[in-house]
Amino acid sequence: MFAELNELLNASPERPEQGKLTLLRDTKTDGSFLVHHFLSFYLKAGCKVCFVALLQSFSHYNIIAQKLGVSLTAAKERGQLVFLEGLKSCFDVFFGEEQHVGQTNPLQFVSKDGSNLKTMYEFVRTSLMASGSDSWKCPVLLVDDLSVLLSLGVRPVDVLDFIHYCRVAVCSQLKGNIVVLVHSNDDSEDEENELVVNSLCHQSNLILWAEGLATGFCKDVHGQLKIIQKGSSELKAEKNLLRIYQYKIQDKNVTFFARGMSAAVL
Amino acid sequence: MAALATGGATPSDGATSFQRKVPASSRLAAIAGTRPSVRHGQLLLSSGLPSLDCVLGGGLAVGTLLLIEEDKYGIYSNLLFKYFLAEGIVCGHNLFVASAKEDPADILKELPAPLFDDVHKNQVDEKETAIKSKQESQESMKIAWRYQNLPKMEVSPAASARFGHYYDVSKTVSPELLKSIKWHRFFLPEEMSLHPEIKTCNMTCDYTRLLQSIQRIIYQEGFDGSYPQNKAIMERVTNLSDTVVGLESFIGSERETNPLYKDYQGLIHVHQIPRLNSLICDVSGTKDLAFRLKRKQFTIERLHLPPDLSDTVSRSSKQDLAESTKLLSSGCGAMAIGKKHLDF
């Protein structure tokens, strides 16, 4: 986890918030550093994490998490982390042997024509359901990333249904958090993706939007992060809080600074 | 190595008896044609062009997807594609060729022939020159004595252990080399005729699913991204791919005759490089890269404009520039005649 980002978000591992949906969005750049931040943050906070990783392999996340001070293999062994490796499961669905009765692959929707994400939802629910011996704090669902589901042939309606079911189960029933990553583009022609992204923007409590600089590539400033915090109470109709920072990614840390205040310039 | 050493000077053999028990590289680079990356520890594969490997941070990581955006007429992207396949043949990998327009067998016949160091030498002279060059190299390596223990690179045509080769574009690869490689084919019109009821919209979903599943499998594919013209699909494919490289050739554009670009055939844009096992990736500082194609070499270098040595500081028009470069190339003596460029 990045200490500076924790300060900006006013979050600390000792008292993680509950019942929140956080949306990570990236445009023209790679926002996966935010996923690594939240993964290590919730593991350090002692929450039970279900990580649906559709984009990269387990070793990739493990190596980066070790740089951030968390071991994913150890977390898996003590039951704190449930890791769904999308690439391997996809492979099993296509080329694996016949599944036994009662044991369904959470990514079963890939091989069938129906784009029902029900099996994946069941997987999430069973893994985050508190069992008697657990002493973990609130459960967390982390998805990296949601735009890939659209490329796998899932309809946007089904993706939104899945998120809705997860919110009901994780956020309201289990009082946990959800963090999802989506890709978007400003002038995108991909309407399905834009539909999902816009809908999630309205539903989420916190949006972290990583964008590439409008002026192009820069060695010292890798991008710009917009933090949009929804008003805490809908009844009072408070305004959204919008803050913009720029960031630079280093090997083990990400530094955030106000716009124009990069260390290279000062 | 031992047989040649007896013929040449051998003072270097007695320099040290220290031998590493197991060379560290042999554990990881067990697959021919790959080498481990210093940055992120994954195995890297050459893309067929050593200069493109430099731009991509050492090479393509095994298990990633390279997407090539075609230039206007597809000439240079086809060339890149052929280099990639030829590299696979030379390293002895299995190939999987999927094509929508050309028959894969025809593509394989047109691959460029690999260039080896001793190809054009005579058989008789070869051994002598080889020994002599090894002698020289042994002598010159007295200062860097530790490198003596590393094995010399072998250049046998059957299985080359080198990383990255140069290819001769004017010659095609020999059929014997082709036969020694196993390859699989996927030709879109064949598949379509077998399943006539599949509509094109389903094909694009299957296409992306194919991409996702292939990302896990060992053998590599280089795509050129002109098949779906649909922009939404292009965005999705770009987001799914690890490395995205775009080519922009000067053919047919006004830049072809522009003397500023006379050395180059086109520009190359690197849109995306994957961040594997790390938060950061090897992005090179320069974004202006141009490529130049010669018979035996395809180089990618930083785009630099020729120096403007004319009197006027501002470039007012292309014509002025053309004239000034003509004058420069004809030599200093002839410059005084004609235009008045120098005031004395």
Query: If interface size is counted as residues with C-beta under 8 Å from the partner's C-beta, which chains form the largest one?
Result: A-B, 37 and 24 residues
Distance between the termini of chain B: 66 Å
| Strand line-up across the major sheet of chain A | 3-2-4-5-1-6-7-8-9
Q: Which structural category fits the helices and strands of chain A? A: alpha/beta
Structural class call of chain B reads: alpha/beta
Q: Could you tell me the mean pLDDT of chain B?
A: 59
Ends apart, CA distance between termini of chain A:
26 Å
Q: Element order, helices and strands of chain A? A: HEHEHHEHHEHHEHEEEE
- How much helicity do the residues of chain B have? 25-40%
Q: What composes the largest sheet of chain A?
A: 9 strands, mixed
Shape of chain A: globular
Unreliable parts of chain B: 1-15, 22-29, 117-161, 191-209, 211-229, 329-340
Helix segment tally of chain A: 9
Uncertain stretches of chain A: none
How many strand elements of chain A? 9
- List the quaternary state of the chains: heterodimer
Task: Give a description of the structure.
The complex is a heterodimer of chains A (266) and B (344). The model of chain A has no long low-confidence stretch (mean pLDDT 83). Chain A has 9 helices and 9 strands. Helix content of chain A is 35%, strand content 23%. In chain A, α6 runs parallel beside α8 and α8 packs parallel to α9 (191-203). The relative contact order of chain A is 0.17. Chain B is of the alpha/beta class. Chain B is 31% helix and 17% strand. Chain B has 11 helices and 13 strands. A 6-stranded mixed beta sheet of chain B has the order 9-4-10-11-12-13. In chain B, a hairpin with a 4-residue loop joins β12 and β13 (298-302). The termini of chain B are far apart. The chains are: A alpha/beta (266), B alpha/beta (344). The interface between A and B is medium-sized, with 37 and 24 residues.
